[in-house]
Amino acid sequence: MRKYAFATRTSASALMFALCLPAFAQQSQSQTDEEIVHLSPFAVNESANMGRYQAAESTSGSRVRMDLMDSTQSISVVTNEFMSDIGTARLLDATKYVAGISSMGGFQLLMDVMNVRGFSDYDLTIDGFSQFSLSNQDPIIVERIEIVKGPNAILAPQGLPGGVVNNITKTPLFVNKGYASYQVGRWDANRAELDANYVLRPDKLALRVVGAFTDADHYGQGQFHQNTTVMPMFTYRLSPQTEFILQFQASNASIFAGGDIPVSVYAVGRSDVRPQDGLPRDFQIGGRNITAHQKAHNTRFKLSSQITDKLSMRVAGNWVESDVRSNFLGPSDPYLGQTGIVVDPIKLDQITGEWYWDGVTVNPNPTYILGGLKEWPLRLSGNFQNDFVYEHTANTWKSQTVAGYAFGYRSQHFRQINYIPDGIYYDFVNNYTQPAYTLGNDWNFNSSDRYRTNQAYIYEVLHLFENRLVLSGSISQNRYVSNTHNNQTGIRVEEKAEATLPSAGIVYKIIPELSVFYGFSKQEVLGSADPGSAIPPHTRPGRQHEGGLRLRLFEGRLYATVSYFDILQENLWEQDPDNYKAPIPFPLNPAVSTDRTSKGVEFEIAWSPTPNFSLIGSFTDFKFRDEDNIRAPNVAEETAALWASYTFSEGPLRGLRLGIGANYVGERAGDTRGRWTTPPLGYDPVRIQPRFWTPSYTIVEASASYRFKKHWHAQLNIHNLLDRDYVSGSGRSQIYMSTPINPKFTLRYDF
């Protein structure tokens, strides 16, 4: 079958990525099926015949197209078809089926926070650009999700060692098509979507507009979110070899995303991990007057050109402006009695670091002090990238050289103010009503920060012995500058650092369908100095060793991978344990550097044995620990997921698609409320163990969709199908309860 960048026979996802760089004219009447048009190295070329959930290529690992079988790092791809089938309302709905990805638990409506091989990622990555967002990214703009596991000095030299979740946006197509839909449901529904694509000039100019409006109530009392997102964009082909894409994304969100309930005052170890006595499981501390607000504008562009038959170029950039205001009502910690005196039944053994209940101390009616206000009144973020690709093909070998540079800039003003203490210790059980708050006159914290990065890199891939052996390596040179100004004291702190980050790897194909791989990669982020704690200016380097096996059969309809990874992150500074040892030294000893590791195995499979049946699954078993073998809060070290769907193409059920899936999340540690004990004289300090553990859980979800007539499509998604009651996460003295069974119905019109 003929393969070319803008064929009408390829899938929609392939077309979107084919538009990302050098555009080529559509097939003319004089062209035959035997002709082959060169595909841009910045575009993917997926086959529509592989299956709904299969992907063969990715552009995130090295900013250019790469066959997943040739990568020396684990790369997972979530297709748009899969996102649609499971009814993705937030990005985590889809990525939780990927090995190594799990939820932070408490952040359901904020920041798309995910654990990637244990490391928590609080920044959102769109088309390779990292940015801060308080609200979750609306899935309407996302075409597919590419997850690069482990450190990557090309895509994210300042990212986390666990990996990067890169959301690839939709782009204009040179075909007239689109849809409009509306969703209703019990919770997290009431949503309208529009995706309209129009060709203004054939093979020259295409316009696309995607947008969504959500006004959803959630399970918790008063919990809601409203979000309007719209992204108009156009593609202009300056010539058959040069293409320009411009996107403008605007969003406005209001959220009450509390979701937290005070945990039982007797919660310790694996006992009594439940809401505080007397509180319903849907209790919320705040309501619609205690919300977070965010307005944001994001402009992105991509200019690409095929300079010669071997040399290609791309220029890309983005600029983000946001304004964020966030009330917070988190209850105080520790627990208080009716008079404001701390009454915490759970005690800490200062010699062992274990928590326990003495069976005597009680607090039948705990009270709390409430929170304040946070603001990011102006947050700016900008990026610029320029990449060049040179490709050479010989009889038995070929090479690809990628070189480029990038600049990054981030600026923010952050301030926090607390509410004036009103002398009331709030009792949530006895007719609790939201109090009227009065803000203090002065900011408790007020600072301005600027951060700049420069990167230059070169990446080389050699395919030898008729593609049986693939060797790759890269060098990324990076410079970081951080400037922080305390607007209250006038103190300014500037930090600078440089890092040379290598990567290398090898892939050997035992047979064309079976390969083994090994890769080594690094990245490094700029840490924060703290003279008061004797923490010097420093960086936090991370490195990964990873090896595994990949299998691809039946023309890509079966793809499976198993890997072992070993990640180390260094220079995590903390207080010297001897500072907690009696007698306490004076002056205190300087801070000391510590490390943490993430080691384990992952397995993933995507299988479509027939055009009607598709399956995706994953399993992860790893250890994410610090030097004292202590687990991090809210990190599930065992996860598993499986989803399968079947489409009826004949008979009376023609047009019906059924899907069902399950997701398992292992036991997670709760907060430790500190790091070291302060033991009596004669004993050494020990690490404080987790106060409590949130239990493991398995949830099941299902979908049924039906296409009737020519343009209409209906879909029913049911989340938490078995109506399981579980704890999704924890934070400080609070836990986050699950949403009960939740059906959602979507009616869609395709045009």
From TrEMBL:
UniProt keyword Ion transport, yes or no: yes
UniProt keywords, alphabetically: Cell outer membrane, Ion transport, Iron, Iron transport, Membrane, Signal, TonB box, Transmembrane, Transmembrane beta strand, Transport
Query: Where does the TonB-dependent receptor-like beta-barrel domain lie?
Result: 294-721
Q: Which domain of life is it from?
A: Bacteria
Q: Looking at the UniProt record for this protein, which Gene Ontology cellular component terms does it annotate, in alphabetical order? A: cell outer membrane
Membrane topology, record value: Multi-pass membrane protein
InterPro entries named among the record's database cross-references: Beta-barrel_TonB, Beta-barrel_TonB_sf, Plug_dom, Plug_dom_sf, TonB-dep_rcpt-like
- Family label: Belongs to the TonB-dependent receptor family.
Entries under PANTHER family matching the protein: FERRICHROME IRON RECEPTOR-RELATED, FERRICHROME OUTER MEMBRANE TRANSPORTER_PHAGE RECEPTOR
Query: What name has this protein been given in UniProt?
Result: TonB-dependent receptor
